[in-house]
Amino acid sequence: MDSVTQAALGASIAGAVAGKTLGRSAVLTGALLGTLPDLDVVIDYGTAVANFTQHRGFSHSLLILAPLSVLIAWALWRWRPKVSFQRWLLLVGLILITHPILDVFTTYGTQLFWPIGPPIAISSIFIIDPLYSLPLLVAFIAFLIRPPAQKVMIVALVLSSAYLGWTLLAQQIITERVKPALAEAGLESYQLLVQPMPFNSVLWRATAITGQTRIEIVTGFLDGEEPLTLEYFPRNPELRQTVAGLPEVQRLEWFTGGFMQYSQSDNQITVTDIRLGIPGAHPFRFVVAETSEAGVTPVNSVQLPRPPLKPGAPDLLWARITGEAPVLCLTTLSIPGPGEGC
Fold this sequence. Notes:
The chain is an alpha+beta fold. It folds into three domains: about 5-150, no CATH class; about 170-230; about 245-305, no CATH class. Helix content is about 45%, strand content about 15%. The chain has ten helices and eight strands. It has helices spanning about 5-20, 25-35, 50-55, 60-80, 85-105, 130-145, 150-185, 235-245, 245-255, 315-320, and strands spanning about 190-195, 205-210, 215-220, 230-235, 260-265, 270-275, 285-290, 295-305. The strands form two sheets. It has a four-stranded antiparallel β-sheet with strand order 1-2-3-4, with helices on one face. A four-stranded antiparallel β-sheet has the order 5-6-7-8. α4 (about 60-80) packs antiparallel against α5. The two termini are about 30 Å apart. The model has no long low-confidence stretch (mean pLDDT about 95).
C-alpha cells in the first residue's frame, strides 16, 4: 500500500496499544514505524530490474521483521520505560508485521518469507484505496486533536480490516463471473489475474494469459446485464523465447508470475509488467537486450518512462465504475459508441 496508508495503519495500532500511556508520541512513533519497511527504496541494487524486484524483499520479510521487532522494542523500552517491554514488543511487532501482510493484498508482489519462496500477491486491493485508508486517517487526526481516542482507533482498525475482507469476497465473485466468458472464448488452460481497477473495489480487471494470447476483461458490480467484453492482445512468444535465457528476464518472469509483454523497437527488446497499470500506461517497462547482426546482447536493464495517461482518463474510469458507461476499452482507453465494440 502507499506510504500514507501504512503510516496511518501504524499510528492506529500504536494508539490502540499504548495511546493512553504515551499520548501523541504513540501515534507519531507508530507512523514512523509503519513506513520503516519501505525505506528499502533508497537502496540501489545496480540495475532497474534489480531495484524493481528487490523492493519489498528483505525489508518486508517476516523472518527479518520478527527479530528486528525485539531489538526496536528493547530500544523504545529504554527510551520510555513507563511502557513495559512486553507492550512495546506488541506495538512494534504488530506494526512491522502488518505492513508486509497488508502489502501482500496488493498486486506488486511481497517477498514475505525472503530469502526463501516466491513473492506473494493476493491482488484484492489497489495500492491506493480511499475506502481502506480513510478510517485510519480519521482516527489518526482524531487522536492528534484529542488523545487518546482509543475507541476511535479500534473502530478504524475494525472497519479497515472488514473492508479488506470485502475485497477478498469481491475478487472471488468477479473471478466466478469471468470464468464462463473465458470458457466460451475457447480458453481451457490459462493463468488468471483478477484485480481491482484504480482507487476502488467496485470495478475489476481480469487478465488471462496463454502462451499465444492475452485477454483483458473489465467488469464491475454496477454493470447491467450486458455480456462481458473481451479484448485480445498478442503475446509475441517468439521474442520471449529469444531472451528467455537472460538472468534479468528470468528474474522478471519469477517476480511477475509470467504476466509480461515482450516487444521490440528498433534494436531494443523491452519487457513490460502487465499486472500494474493498464494497457498503454504500464509503469514498469524495461529494456533488457539489444539486437544486432551478431544476435541478441543483454544490457544492464533500464526502466523506460511511464507513458502519460490519456486526457480525461479519470472521468472515463468514474463513468465505468458507476455503470454509466457499460464498456471501457483498455486498448484505446475509450468508451465505445452505441453498438460499437472495442
